[in-house]
Predict the structure.
Amino acid sequence: MTKIKNICCIGAGYVGGPTMAVIAHKCPDVKVTIVDLNAERIAAWNDEDVNNIPIYEPGLAEVVASARGRNLFFSTDVEKAIDEAEMIFISVNTPTKTYGVGKGMAADLKYIELCARQIASVAKNDKIVVEKSTLPVRTAEAIKNILDNTGNGAKFQILSNPEFLAEGTAVEDLLNPDRVLIGGDNDEDGQKAIKSLVDIYANWIPEERILTTNVWSSELSKLTANAFLAQRVSSINAMSELCEKTGADVNEVARAIGMDSRIGSKFLKASVGFGGSCFQKDILNLVYIAKSYGLNEVADYWEQVVIMNDHQKKRFATNIVRTLYNTVSGKKIAFLGWAFKKDTNDTRESAAIYIADALLYEQANIAVYDPKVEKETIYKDLDYLESRESAQNKKGVVVFENSYEACKDAHAIAVLTEWDEFRTYDWQKIYDHMKKPAFVFDGRNILDGEKLRKIGFVFQEIGK
Ligand code: NAD
Ligand code: UGA
């Protein structure tokens, strides 16, 4: 068995950064080097002030500070890190394809292939290559094909080790995961490679929570886990619409069903719709894979989760327009929250982007406040949709650093992220400075409706 002394991770993003920082923190005798093509990102990871690292996650700065410069390094020198490492994690992005065959559905594996080719060209000795990115089932086969044709005699073992962390709780999830999943080949070399990785995690994770499988089960389990999680959100959101029509309360329904231990209480919060870089991408990828095997019923079944999510976002925006007397033209709508969930600065696929887009079509003036998201990110998110000229987005959306200022003179407020601080605001003060009637649309069901109605707000929430 190879005792791992040097790890390289390609991709210093939301997964590579926190995952490797925790490995370095927990395994002081293993040198961990995280590399990325994005020099700006690497510079931010190396920033003298650890609070300036590029990803906001509770507890991450402390973990990075504990290991950086000791056995944790961030670099743009990809080749050197590959050369030195016995184990290489691939943690690059695998977005939905935006061109060619599978456009809008399949995972774009060009970054994965580039990594494999770079490893192939640099490696002079045997390496264990670990898929950390979320990949279509059987990707390891393609990676192996590329690596086995290097012509330099090096041997490679491919492991699948998907990551289950959720943003906002990444450090806690990594320190104390429900399970770690490692897939590898069944032959002797495969089992040895698995054992090398098990030994890394065993430094802080009880062995019974380290699950080993074959490669294909591991790859497919990751897509399956995300599909099941997203399905729960779409299921409760579907019920939220029915609740609104029938006088049932979605929070009460969620509580009632969640107490059934077969169903469980987690992941049953009705919302304006799930966001994040992965749920939609991974389900569409699953749909594409199913279709490519001719499994159309399987594909349709999972696609419905995304269709339902789009519907939930759309109906939230439509409801705002309808409630504001069928026009929001020239009206100020304040957004509390832009991130796709609380405790992260990540905005990828955030529901807020689509709500803003829909309201901009209706000529609303949008004022955004988010405690962690940068102004440039918000404009970039809107420009990415290509719905209108960039200048129009800048004209229609103003970003505030102070939430009370964002809400001042607004006709309505939409709560789009469940940041804790929103609950503790002086809502009377906010009401006093808004146009009347003052509307609040709580897309996260976090505010105290009774209190807000007493103040005078017209208050609407999801599923009630
Ligand atoms: P990300 O975009 O934050 O980071 C990916 C990084 O890889 C980028 O910084 C990019 O510059 C770099 N990169 C791309 N190609 C490269 C190359 N050839 N050489 C060096 N660097 C390269 O992405 P992420 O959110 O960290 O996601 C990475 C993978 O992990 C995806 O497959 C995703 O589905 C999966 N995943 C993400 C999460 C999450 O919470 N974000 C959780 C579990 C799994
Ligand atoms: C999700 C999974 O939870 C992770 O296990 C997985 O590793 C990750 O995707 C990934 O593969 O990227 P993440 O997207 O970071 O993690 O965050 P979640 O907590 O799952 O939330 C996703 C979205 O669903 C958010 O917009 C959240 O607000 C929404 N959500 C979640 C609800 O609307 N209701 C809920 O009950 C739970």
Q: What stands out?
A: The pocket of nicotinamide-adenine-dinucleotide (ligand 1) is lined by residues 10-16, 35-38, 41, 78, 91-94, 111, 114-115, 133-134, 163, 165, 167, 277-278 (CB under 6 Å). The mean pLDDT is 97. Residues 6-205 form a domain with the Rossmann fold fold (CATH 3.40.50.720).
